Amino acid sequence: MDGKIPLIIKWSGKEYEIYISEEDSVADLKREILYKTAVRPERQKLLNLKLKGKVTDEECKISTLKLKPNFKIMMMGSLEQDIVEANTAPTNMPEVVNDFDIEDEEVAIENQEVYLAKVARRVKEYEINILNGLRPGKKCLVLDIDYTLFDHRTTAQSGSELMRPYLHEFLTSAYEDYDIVIWSATNMKWIIEKMKLLGVDKHPNYKIAFYLDSLAMISVHTPKYGVIDVKPLGVIWGKFEQFSPKNTIMFDDIRRNFIMNPKNGLRIKPFREAHLNRFKDNELLRLSKYLKDLAEHCADFTKINHRHWEKYKPKKRRHSKDNRENKDRDRADRTEC
């Protein structure tokens, strides 16, 4: 179109092409998005569109943003009917578990040569951008994003409304004992934008070591469920010798993601419907204590059944007049967790 530049809006798994004049405003852009997607302007959050200074959408001209043709804008936002449905509590519904029952599959998958070869290939070819240096002696905490730290489906005016309660307190506490890794089954651009949205990327009280995206995952075949994509922790262990099964734990709301490393995965309760649950969800607060107990009392994380993390009670060290006997007992406690 004459005098207009094409832009791509990425929303809800689809791409929409929009033509806009450089003399138009961001408000005009949002109105064009409305015509294409039916998402109202006040519901639209354009994640990677950086406005200059404190200007309104009406005041900000497209020309000031210096967007190149076919620039992709990532959008969050919900349709009005979806918002109504989200705010309506369902009745007579059974409990829904967003996961596969993969317990019988784990042993068959974990050590198969074909999958170990895929992991080795990721170790060799996948490039990791270290955001903050790894610290000697720290353990490794691997975190999913969607439904683990963030409700990515519910609509909101700000990222803080979709953030899981106690997120920053949880990460601050974990950072004392763990190098923190974010691993999401999406592309790197989305990970970066979501971490910015949540204020995780530059928080003063903790640092993220690095991000892993979908390209670090591998596909495996299960007899019952066919081909699924999973997050093999062996990619991290192959890249960084200070991390191993003994000192690594992964939180994910979907158990199948750690089918390659079942002894190192903890299925966290999914955080959904943030508008209903953000004042009562305390999962991260309780998991902070669990991580602290593991770091202080357990020398081998694979010795613990993380499915029963809520019942975990670390062995208390006994005191004795005989120092040597006391040290031996401490060592035994750490070995057995």
From TrEMBL:
Protein name listed in UniProt: Ubiquitin-like domain-containing CTD phosphatase 1
Species the sequence originates in: Rhynchophorus ferrugineus (Red palm weevil)
Catalytic activity: O-phospho-L-threonyl-[protein] + H2O = L-threonyl-[protein] + phosphate; O-phospho-L-seryl-[protein] + H2O = L-seryl-[protein] + phosphate
Domain of life: Eukaryota
Main location: nucleus
Bias (Basic and acidic residues) ranges: 322-337
UniProt feature, compositional bias: Basic residues: 312-321
Subcellular location: Nucleus
Domain named FCP1 homology: residues: 134-294
